[in-house]
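Incident review: delayed structure delivery

Summary: a single-chain prediction request sat in the queue longer than the usual turnaround. Root cause was a stuck worker, restarted by the on-call engineer. No data loss occurred. The affected request and its eventual output are reproduced below so the record is complete for anyone auditing the incident later.

Affected input:
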Amino acid sequence: MIPEVDMPGHFYAALQALPELRDPAEQGQYQSVQGFPNNSLNPAHEPVYRFVETVVDAVLELFPAAIFHLGADEVPLAAWSGSPLALDLLEQLAGPQMRRKHEAQFNQLGNHHGADEIEGSPTAILQAHFIKRVHAYITQKGARTGGWEEAAHGDAVSKEHSYVIGWRNVEVNAALAERGFDIVVSPGQRYYLDMANGASWAEPGAGWAGWSGPRETYEFEAREGFSSEGLKHLLGVQSCIWSESMTDRAIFDRLVFPRLSAVAEAGWTLPEHKSWDRFASMAGLMPIMYGHWASE
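Output delivered after worker restart:
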C-alpha cells in the first residue's frame, strides 16, 4: 500500500487545525477548484517543513513500501499571492518581475474551467521550491517520492528517485516519459471511475474530463504515443475513484463495474490480445454487489 499525503495543496483541514503553519501576515483569499479557501502549505514558512518532516517520518514508519506520495496537484494559481513571506521568496528565486506578476493574482479566483494550469507561473516556482525540499528529505530517508504530474514542473523531483502520475489528459503521459520520468498512466478521460459512463443527462457521475463507457475504457491503450525509449519509463496504469458522485451503492456499482475490470485487463494485456467481444461476454459474471444488497 502506498499512502498519499497531498501537499502543498489540498491541506485545508490541517491548516485549520494548526494555524501556526500559515504566514501570520498573509492577507486575501484564494480557492481550490473544490472551493476550499487558502488551502495550501506555504513554501516560505519554516514551521511548515518541520511539520512535513514529522509527517514523512511517521508515514514511512507505518508503511513499508519506502515510497511517499506527496501529491502536488491542484494548487490554485493565486496561492500565496497575499503572503509577504512567499512573495519575498519568489523574488529571491525568480526576480522582482515575477513577484509583481504574482502580486497581481491577489484575491483573484481562478478555476473557471477546472483546476488551474500553473506550469510556468510564479505559483509553480514556489511549489517547485517546496517539492524539491520535501523530495530531498524523502530521498535522504532512503525512500522514493511519488507525485501527480505537477511534481515534475521545474523538474522538482529527481528522475532517479521518483515517479509521477499523469492525470490531466492522454498526451501528458507520453510527454513525461519522453522527458525521462517514470510514469503511471491515469488520464481522467479514461481511468477516473467517477466520470459518467455516457453523455446522457441521466447518467450519474462527474463530467469535467468527459465520459468513458466500458468499451472506451477497455479499448484505451496506455502505451499510445510512447516511443520505445519512453516505454522504458512506463510503470503501469492506475484507476481512480473519487466518491463525491457516488451518493448510494447503486451509483457506485454503475460507475465502478465493469470499468474497473476493464482497466485491470487492459493493464495486463498486450494490445493484440485484447478483445472487447470476449470481455463483454463475461461482464455478466462480474460482481454487481448492489443486487445482493437489494435482495436482503
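Verification: Residues 122-140 form the longest helix (19 residues).
Action items: add queue-age alerting; document worker restart procedure.
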